[in-house]
Design brief:
single chain; about 60 residues; mainly beta; two-stranded antiparallel ribbon; binds zinc ion
């Protein structure tokens, strides 16, 4: 494929629906055992497992 910088276009990629294309999800931090689990106000940024942080929707 000939390299043409100016003509290069990114293929249209769908954004991941889970992370809205950011590649990150925010998870509510839970403390305690499963039974006693309660949500805290702390939220943790985590790598989106759907797109593995790429922000692109999986094609498969
Ligand atoms: Zn994602």
């Amino acid at each position: 494929m000939a390299a043409r910088k100016a003509a290069v276009r990114k293929p249209r990629v769908k954004k991941c629906s889970d992370c809205k294309g950011t590649g990150e999800t925010t998870e509510t931090v839970r403390v305690g055992s499963a039974r006693k689990a309660r949500e805290t106000t702390d939220r943790q940024a985590a790598l989106c497992l759907t797109c593995f942080g790429s922000g692109d929707a999986p094609t498969t």
